[in-house]
């Protein structure tokens, strides 16, 4: 009977569709977390020894970056906890307070001395929790000398946690945050590039979105050239003019493929993105398989090459096929673990 159960389990598992998600596409990769202990250190061996915790989780929607800040105070009784982002004496303060013995709470933000009642808050099982989600366009985004902080490229700000009379710089810089250099995109997508320019590949089952982004510089035009044995794809984006042009060069014939793009978006001054169908028609009417090619790629900024790669795939971790051998290894390990 045991043997029959093992064989049945094997059959069920190999019948799962042959696709898998990135093992890094989870909160452990996306989120940066800092702690403040009751004795003023940045380590919490247990919840009982923890005074506060803050986590930073970035995301990107339609080319726009968002940041969620979750602040927790442990075993709070009519107290408050605060997060400070500070540099050169300028403070951005995110505060979470318990304001009554009935468990009423309050979340607020003070940006360079200007207070906003903003965020969500709750008192639950003796713990105080507050959360803020924002983009750089929001008034509660951290500022420095009247301008929103560019957390992607500027990392000179210190991160401070406070609770009552306990205060600790949990990080002297913000370079470890996953929003810095947009490191969070690598958790779930295939990302090519360097510290200044990146190409992000975001496929779905029906299309592939390509996104070029500048980390620091503001070029007038981005150009992406993708060359395969079957042809060449050329994309010119003018981020400050909200203009994107797309061409294909197949059999030495250059033609526009702008009308075959499923979508396009320009977020001045740093990001250009567009979606390609899995197949598009060439100038002769033949279908061109976009994602089945391996490309050599070059990124130009204002006609200067800023990145090149001889091997780029327009797929990401989420839609790679699993080979039969890797499936067999997975199933074998699963069965052994269950037998043990």
Explain how this protein is built.
This protein has two domains: 27-181, no CATH class; 189-319, Immunoglobulin-like (Sandwich). It starts with a helix and ends with a helix. Helix 1 packs antiparallel against helix 4 (324-339). The radius of gyration is 25 Å and the shape is elongated. The chain has four helices and 26 strands. The longest helix has 16 residues, at 324-339. A hairpin with a 2-residue loop joins strand 6 and strand 7 (114-116). It has helices at 2-14, 27-30, 185-188, 324-339; strands spanning 32-37, 50-61, 64-73, 80-87, 90-98, 105-111, 114-116, 120-124, 127-135, 143-144, 147-148, 158-163, 166-171, 190-193, 197-203, 207-214, 222-228, 231-238, 243-250, 253-256, 263-267, 271-277, 279-281, 287-289, 294-301, 304-313. Mean pLDDT is 83; it is low at 1-22 and 316-340. 11% of the residues lie in helices and 49% in strands. The strands form six sheets. Strands 7-6-5-4-12-13 form a six-stranded antiparallel sheet, with no helix packed on it. It has a six-stranded antiparallel sheet with strand order 20-19-18-17-25-26, with no helix packed on it. The protein has 340 residues and is mainly beta.
